[in-house]
Give the backbone structure.
Amino acid sequence: MELPFTAEQFGEVFRKYNTSVWPLQVIFYLLAAITIFFLFKQSGSSSKLISGILGFFWIWMGVVYHLIFFAGINKAAYIFGILFIMQGILFIHMGVFKNLLAFKVNRDFRSLVGIGLLVFALIAYPILGFYQNHIYPSSPTFGLPCPTTIFTFGILLLTEKKISIRIVIIPFIWSIIGFTASFNLGMKEDISLLVTALIAAVLNPVRWKFQPIL
């Protein structure tokens, strides 16, 4: 499939985004650290806080990255932006207001893989990008769709309850879309995006029925 932009234009979007929002990338890593802390340090509101942080990230990516930056070279970003905003609202609605999401690190294989995906998203993903010559600021930093989607799948592997399929649909669709970048744009680190989605699909306890959440 031929894309409506070049690899150079794609990298320029990252450069403009990263230079415009700096130093928020540091804040995003702090939010990720807070998320991981509350996965281990359980409290009555830890799952709501984690859901709220995930919701914020997805709304941020939808509004700022897709609608403000990426739409300049790809009109499909308007659709992506709406979907990401919907995903963020879904995390907040289900996790913060309805208390349908519960996250915790357990001593099992699924939790081990989930923590591994968090580490991969925050540390290994940018290292892989660096060795592909995707160097800051022209690289996807945490808080942008691909590494943050991997981070999201890692969090969802740490759920204590079965999760509704509706909360994984948009991240899974994006993993397929983002995976195409690994071939069309030379973003080989994004091969991990689809691999992550498949791992999450196999290991996640998903409730397949579209049960009401209102």
Q: What stands out?
A: The mean pLDDT is 92. The chain has one domain: 7-207. Strands lie at 163-164, 206-207. Residues 7-207 form one domain.
